[in-house]
Amino acid sequence: MRYELYYWPTIQGRGEFVRLALEEGAADYVDVARMPERTGGVRALLRLLENTSAERPPFAAPVLKAGKQVIAQTANILLFLGPRLGLAPKAEATRLWVHQLQLTIADLVTEVHDTHHPIAGGLYYHQQKREARRRAADFRTERLPKFLDYFESVLERNRSGGRYMVGSALSYVDLSMFQVIAGLSYAFPRAITRLKRRYSRLMDLHRRVMERPRIAAYLASPRRLPFSTEGVFRHYPELDR
Question: Which residue ranges make up each domain of the chain?
């Protein structure tokens, strides 16, 4: 099956979690909004999102088309793709555990976003800088360690000896954790430098995923967009004291 991914063409954002799974799973896919306007482009994405006649309309990107199925929400897309790409366990209970971890990652990503947009997504960062500094300080000292403590303990308790989040093989949640650590290292380099020793298992997981042949090839390709101050993970020095 050829998959169609619909996401904004100039940022990694939440769509990157889906891209990583598609790349590691060697899926046949197209990133529709990055295609020429005559065959895709942003207009195709907007048409999908603004289709008021759709029976099950998506609320926002990312959206995945798989045949006649239209699937939205990052964790939901990965729940669908995981078994099809060999990136999820076969047992239902374990698949739900992977999904639960992915939903917790989604919570963390939302809190990362809110460090630079604590008041409203419709306001520019410079319009809420004072509030962002307060929110980022709480995130660095309270919320971030709480999330990382949890994920580090998941790795420690897993029978793989800390190599994987779930079971004895790579799953899509390992890829997502790689993206989280990469994004946090970009957005909060000083904070992550201070925390590296405390979360050695997470740092090792990040390194191992980065070295996987398909992921390494993807990271070296133009398909992997750089982090920037337009995505979810943004670096503002004043938020990383």
Answer: 2-84, 92-212
User: What would the pLDDT profile of 40-69 be if each residue is shown by its tens digit?
Assistant: 999 999 999 999 888 999 999 999 999 999
Mean pLDDT of the chain: 97
The values of phi and psi at residue 99, to 5°, are -60, -40
Amino acid at 14: R
Nearest alpha carbon to residue 23 among 224, 191, 174, 165: 224
Kindly report which listed range (52-56, 120-124, 193-197) carries the lowest average pLDDT score: 52-56
Confidence (pLDDT) at 195: 96
CA distance 136 to 144: 10
Question: 186 near 232, Cβ under 8 Å?
Answer: no
Identify residue 205 by its one-letter amino acid code: L
Q: How far is CA 237 from CA 2, 108, 232, in A?
A: 41, 20, 16
Protein fold of 92-212: Glutathione S-transferase Yfyf (Class Pi); Chain A, domain 2 (1.20.1050)
Residue 159 has pLDDT above 90, yes or no: no
The pLDDT of residue 14: 98
∠ Cα 61 63 68 (to 5°) = 150
Residue in 214, 210, 153 with CA at minimum distance from that of residue 185: 210
Question: Could you tell me where the beta strands, DSSP code E, fall in the chain?
Answer: 2-6, 28-31, 63-66, 69-72
- Please state, in angstroms and rounded to a whole number, the distance separating the CA atoms of residues 209 and 65: 26
